[in-house]
Each structure stands twice: as structure tokens, then as C-alpha cells.
Amino acid sequence: MEKYGQYRDKGSGIAPFFPIAPPTTSPLLLPWQLFLACVRIPVLTFAWLVWLCLIKHLPAGSLLRKANQWCLLGIPGVWWIDLQVDNVRRGSLSQTPRGRLPYPGTIIASSYTSPLDVLYLAAIFDPIFTQSYRKGRLVRPISQETALANCFHLPNPLELGAERKTMTLEELVRLNPTRIIVVFPESTTSNGRGILKLSPSLLSAAQTTKIFPVSLRYTPADVVTPIPGWLEALRFIWRLNSGQTHCIRVRIGKATTMSRDNPSIQSSSNSSTTSDSSTSSRGGAGKEGFETNFFDTLLATTSGGPSVGSEDESGGVSGAERRVLDAVAEDLARLGRVKRVDLGVEEKARFVEAWGRKSRKSA
User: Which residues, other chains included, contact 5 with Cβ-Cβ below 8 Å and sequence gap of 6+?
Assistant: First the structure.
């Protein structure tokens, strides 16, 4: 793996783009794993078809929508949820004040590692998902199916040819006051071992809108999808459905706002490292500008279509705005018990290209 050393964070040595190998098991368990997969995959497919044909058309927040999402989680064995809210004692979650949990009109800034992120957030909050772009402040509202496809950087066949409308988070919240908005500010998936450089999309939220950082981690950790493609999607389905059980560790942080004079942001900025400042200074590097995430680059390369997000007129990120993003990144890293890394969409695109060359040579 030394040949991929350039895709490790120089400060910590963390490699956020490497796939995580499944835990070692006895070959004697293979028949049991095959049995589990053969039973679960048809049932999971049926539940997914019910969602596509019927449930998704019901009003947001309805009981049937959430019940279907819990079925999509429970069928492959995601039965254990370890949920903790900042500054709330274990066992007293039911007494948590309303302002400590995401509610309609607020934004969730979530970690981004697996399709299970999408399914869990849909089961709990039934939100509107968005797609962020590396150098753009605008976001694109997307369906749950597109959010799942984005985890593998694949196009959603149900939305091919559809208009890709982008807008600010402030506008999206104003148009949907009864919904929660989910943003994946890292713009692309990682293996969960570090927090990537954040997109400036969060800066388009109104300064009074509350933003809740949410970290999701998994046990076993091999159900993450840092590598794109159909083959990785099939591997994910196998690992998810052949495993005995899966646990989700959910941590919800204290809400913050995009206000530049937010005291929590000021205190967080004081604890930022030197590598964080170098991240912002190098953020504009790149021959092509990297205004989109790898999903859009891949789509533009294969289909010849235009990349989304290139029309964003955001310009650069000021020092005060950088402190705002640093505060959110620090919260995500603290909640996930990981470190921030000086890597992002640009480095992942180059890593995936190098990884693909290696796979072709070994084939």
C-alpha cells in the first residue's frame, strides 16, 4: 500500500479512502452467510419495491414511510442503535428538550460513509436530502434513491434526464418549513476514519438556522463505501446481508448557526490546528477547479453532460466563513472520535483513478 501513501493525510497518516476489509471469520461460517444473504436479499428487494411503487408517494412524515425505512434497516440485521445526544445523560433521552434534537426548519450536517447513513436518517427524520459540491455554495435537493446512488457515485436511473436544480440552503429551508434538511458537507464518502474537507454549502444557510452535526459509525465497520462503482455496490449488499448483525453508533451534537459572531465558533476556531489553516489556503488548488464532486465528474466523463454546480457564483471563502466550517468539522470529528484530514474530493478522484488502474492490472 506504500504506492498509495500520497493519499494519506500528511499530519496523521490516516487513509480515508481505503476500503475496510471485513472481519476475519471461519470458513465454516460461509454456508450460514450464504443462507442469510439468500433469505434477506429477496425480502429486502420486495421492501424496496414497495417503497418505490407505493410508500414514497405518501405524505412526508407518515407512519408507513418510517415503518418501511425501519424494515429496510432491520431486514439486513441493523438491529442495534447506540444513540447519544451531547450534554444529555444516558437513559434520559425521552426528557431531552426540543431544541437538542433536529426539528423541522433545521439542518443536519451528517458524516458521510455509507448508504446506511441515508436509510437511518430517513427512518428517524424523513428529511429532504441534498447534494453538496466541493467548491459550490449551492445544493441540489435529491430523492432518497439518488442519495443512495451517490454513495457509490452512480446515476439514479429513475432520474436520468431530470433537471438538476440547485439553490441555497436558506431558500430550501424557506420552501420546506415543515421538513428537516440533510447535508453531507464532505461531498463524497470516506471510510469513516477521518473527516474530509468540508464544502462551503453550509454557508448558504440563513445565519439564524440551527445546524446539528450528526456522526454515524458502524460495527462491523466494513459496510462503508469509499470506492465507487457497481462492483462495490454488490460487495456492500453482500457484506450487509451476510453479516449476523450490525450496530449503528449515532452521536448528535449541539446545534450551531452560521452566524459569524457565534461564540461556539470562536472557541472552536481557537483549537484549530495549523494543518486546518493550510487546508483553506490550498482549497482553490487544482487544474480543473474541482467545482463538483466525483459523482458529477464521473457522470460528465461518461455521458458528456455538463457538470452540476459549476454555475455557483460563490467565490472564495473568507476567514470568518472558514472558522464557521472549521467549527462544524471539529464537532463532527469530536462526535465520531476521529481526526480531521487535509484531503477531499480532489484527492479521492485521483485515488479512485489509481485504484482502478491497480484493479485492471490484477484482473
Answer: none
pLDDT for the residue numbered 61: 87
In this structure, are residues 242 and 248 in contact, taking their beta carbons and an 8 Å threshold? no
Calpha distance 278→138 (Å, rounded) = 24
Residues 6+ apart with CB under 8 A from 318: none
**Dist. CA 184–CA 182, nearest whole Å:** 7
**Tens-place pLDDT, residues 308-337:** 444 444 448 888 889 989 999 999 999 999
Average pLDDT over residues 188-199: 95
CA–CA distance, 162 with 92 (Å, rounded to integer)? 45
Q: What is the pLDDT of residue 279?
A: 40
Query: CB count, 10 Å around CB of 64?
Result: 13
| Whether the predicted pLDDT of 43 surpasses 50 | yes
Model confidence at 363, pLDDT cuts 50, 70, 90, reads low
Residue 131: is it exposed, middle or buried by C-beta count within 10 angstroms (0-12/13-18/19+)? buried
Q: Which residue, 209, 172, 202, is CA-closest to 186?
A: 202
Instruction: Answer yes or no: are the C-beta atoms of 108 and 180 closer than 8 Å.
Output: yes
What is the pLDDT at residue 25? 85
φ, ψ dihedrals at 292, nearest 5°: -130, 170
Q: Cα torsion for 170, 176, 182, 184, to the nearest 10°?
A: -40
DSSP label at residue 244 = S
Task: Quote the CA–CA distance of 265 and 252 in Å, as a whole number.
Answer: 17
Q: Is 281 exposed, middle or buried (0-12, 13-18, 19+ CB in 10 A)?
A: exposed
Q: How far is CA 264 from CA 84, 259, 326, 327, in A?
A: 20, 10, 11, 8
**Res 16 pLDDT > 60:** yes
Overall residue count recorded for the chain in this entry: 363
How is residue 216 written as a grid cell?
454515524
Q: Write out the DSSP string of 301-324.
A: HHH-PPPTTTT-------HHHHHH
